[in-house]
Specification:
alpha+beta
């Protein structure tokens, strides 16, 4: 991983290096010390959501009420943008991030293996793209998608019996 700067000091540098570089400005100062980069929680959540969805065995992210609200939100014009971050919660500090995921896995896969693959992919993607250290990726498997499940994203709900 390259030294991406996420604060006033250096990402992978010792405290002595950080204090020595702090306050240096002007044309003679290294480019990485001129300014501060902040990364929004929503950016990290999108990266983590995309990385988790890339893993074979993940049917979708989000569980229970998050999926129900997401389905309603998608039907509202302009409301479908939260699909990528559904089931993803993050905490982002100056140099570190923590990720919580709610996942639905495919029936028949090893949940332990899929969870390990998700952790690996999320950590490498977030760290590579943001320079933040991912301190933990917590995965809550909320459901198992069965091959014969009728429910698919985007299907219309059945009409009620009462009119």
């Amino acid at each position: 991983m390259t030294d991406n700067i996420t604060g006033a000091g250096g990402g992978g540098r010792s405290e002595a290096d950080v204090s020595a570089l702090k306050g240096r400005t002007g044309a003679g100062a290294p480019a990485e010390t001129r300014g501060k980069t902040t990364i929004a929680d929503s950016v990290v959540a999108k990266i983590a959501g995309m990385a988790a969805r890339e893993v074979p065995g993940i049917h979708r992210l989000g569980a229970g009420m998050a999926r129900a609200f997401g389905a309603v939100r998608e039907r509202v014009p302009g409301g479908g943008s939260a699909t990528v971050t559904r089931g993803v919660k993050v905490e982002v500090g100056e140099r570190q991030a923590a990720v919580d995921l709610d996942a639905v896995v495919e029936y028949g896969v090893s949940i332990v293996d899929v969870a390990g693959d998700v952790r690996t992919n999320v950590i490498s993607s977030v760290e590579r793209m943001t320079g933040l250290e991912v301190v933990e990726v917590n995965i809550a498997v909320a459901d198992v998608h069965l091959p014969d499940d009728e429910e698919e994203e985007g299907t219309e709900p059945e009409e009620g019996r009462v009119r």
